[in-house]
Amino acid sequence: RITELDRLLKEICDKIQPEMNRKELDFSIEIPPKLPQIEVDKDAIVAALVNLLGNAVKYTPEGGNVCFTVLVEDNEIQFKVQDSGIGIAEEELPHVFEKFFRSDDGRVRGVNGSGLGLAFSHEVARLHQGRIDVSSELNQGSTFSLVLPLKIGVEA
Length: 156
Ligand code: ATP
Ligand code: MG
Prior knowledge:
This is histidine kinase. Helix content is about 30%, strand content about 30%. By secondary structure, the protein is α+β, with helices and mostly antiparallel strands.
């Protein structure tokens, strides 16, 4: 269960890069040089982050940009996915983590999805005693942050 973060991140980027290319999105990655080990269910965290990045791809028009940032703090690690996409209306924001929720936005209806990705990612965060934060502005873009506690005392 102790996971090398660099391997986890490489797996994520390998999965999502082809989708970024297909949509001609400018995908930038900001990862600190020294990464801690984390104790997580690797496949679940990879799937949760691939969901967030997959949404960034789906809901950002061609030519836009997506930034994936990893921030290591004292007792938590933050994975941030920022896009320049269609954004989410303020009144819909409280609902995005609900099962089967999809926006009323006409631009979302034209995109395949079942409204389960974020509910899954949210549950994965919860099972790791973490959380997902979202902020968004319609027509400007969205930022989703998956935050996990870093367990102190877990050594290599
Ligand atoms: P699925 O992930 O099951 O294939 P989905 O992408 O529609 O389908 P979620 O990932 O759960 O479902 O997202 C729920 C809804 O939240 C989306 O339908 C969309 O309306 C909105 N949403 C999620 N991520 C973004 C984003 N990055 N930009 C704009 N809207 C988003
Ligand atoms: Mg999704």
